[in-house]
Structures are given as C-alpha cells and as structure tokens.
Amino acid sequence: MRVHLLVPAVALLAVSSGFPMSGESAGVVTYTCTTTSTGQTQEIRVNVELTVPPTAKVDEQMTIGWRGSYVGGGELIAPVPRLKLYVYAGISKIDRLTSATGVATLPAIAAGVPLPLPESVVELKTTPKQPGSGSVHPASFNFGTSPSARAIECEVKDRGTGSDYPLTVEGTAPVDAETERPDDARTDEPVDEVKTPVGGADTGGGGEAGPDGRIVVLAGLVVLAGVGMGVRVGSRR
Q: Could you tell me where the Gly residues compositional bias lies (predicted)?
C-alpha cells in the first residue's frame, strides 16, 4: 500500500517544481527571427531540449546539450549559403554565470533553401565562478558565417512552459588574496611628511616647518636684526 502511494507523490512533486523530469522533452519556444540584410521578420516555433548536468563545479568547464526541431512546419530560409548555427542558453540565479554558448556546422546548402536544425546535440560550454543553485533555459540562436557576421538573428518571444532546468554548482567561492607587507617592513613610528604648497617648488614657497621650526626661524631673524643694528652703530662712529 505504501509503494502505491509513493509513486504518485513523487510524480506530483516533479510536476509542481516546474522543472522537467529526467528524459522529458522541453516545451515549445517561440522565436522572432530577423534577416539582418533586409530586416524581414518571421515567427517560428522550436521544440528545444536541453541536457543539463545534475551538478557542476566551480572553475570547471561544464557542457549543456542543445537539440532543437521546428514545430508546425515553419522553417527559416537561408539568405546566403554556408551558414553556421550559434546557440545560447540562459542561466539564472547563480552569481557570475549568465549563459553558455555553442556552435554547429550546418550542411552546405544554397541560398533560398530552408535552413535545417542540427540532428545531433550541440554542446554549449561555460565555466561557473561561484557556487549556487539556479536554472537553465533556452535563449537566442543565430545563423551566420561568424559570431559577429549574423545573417539571421532569432530572439526568444515566449519560452512557454517546461523549458527551465535546475542547475546546482558545487564548490567554494574563490577568496581574493590580501597582500600584506612583511613584518620586518612595518614600523610603529610615525613618519613625518613635508608638504609643499601648490607652486612651492616654482615660487620659492616653503614646506610646513612645524612649531619647532618656526621658533628656530624666529630666533635667526632676531640675531640677524641685532647684527644689523650693530653694523649701523659702528658706521655712525
């Protein structure tokens, strides 16, 4: 009796979590695709299935599998020949981890022919830098001859349901090392600084002499004044 009750409970938990169960196909994603040379747009629906590892580790490269297929017969037309597919997956709720990227080489087709999606799994790569738990979801993809030379850009319009996959990154967050001076380089005695006023070096302005320095300067002026008076008295005689 307990076994019969346990199976429905597990199934209900998986459905209520919002994440696909292992082996379950992802939901259908709606994309808005734009041909960059003409600005013409087309809306397509793609069934995207992501293969996400159950866990990943900090500072270790991880791989997310991507497989897509057109839904409803809506296919894109190649504006130019010899295109590649550049695919992205979005990652949420994990610090310093926002996406994974991958590329697939398509069959050599001529312009004006429907663009096929790869039958094999496209590997998307990324490297986590912080531990945490989040989710992976389908993101944009582009057709082009290079990542910057895009012939068609496809942005997500509606991810639908069932397209988020859980991801856990294990490990310890890296700690920034603090650089400290060696003990023998430290001193407990304050170091006096002589500050030069603005223009001091050019205008002859002095630094901050401090109270003791000012007394010495004053005494010197008194001595010079006395010498001057003596010279004047001697000259009168």
A: 201-210
| Cβ 119 vs Cβ 106: under 8 Å | no
Q: Residue with structure tokens 């600005």? A: 39
Q: Which parts of the chain register pLDDT below 50? A: 1-25, 177, 179-182, 184-211, 213-219, 221-224, 227, 229, 231-237
- Are the CB atoms for 124 and 86 separated by under 8 Å? no
Instruction: Report how far residue 120's alpha carbon sits from residue 154's, in angstroms, rounded to the nearest whole number.
Output: 20
Q: Which residue has the tokens 């979005």?
A: 90
| Helix or strand run (H / E) with residue 31 | strand 28-35
DSSP-assigned letter for residue 172: -
Residue 18 falls in which region: left (phi positive, over 0), alpha (psi -120 to 50) or beta: left
At residue 27, the pLDDT reads 82
Q: Where are the beta strands (DSSP E) in 72-226?
A: 84-92, 99-105, 122-126, 132-144, 150-158, 165-170
CA separation for the pair 26, 43 (Å, rounded): 19
Pick the CATH number of 18-170 from 3.40.1360, 1.25.10, 2.60.40, 3.30.300: 2.60.40
For residues 164 and 134, give the distance between their C-alpha atoms in angstroms, rounded to a whole number.
10
Domain ranges of the chain: 18-170
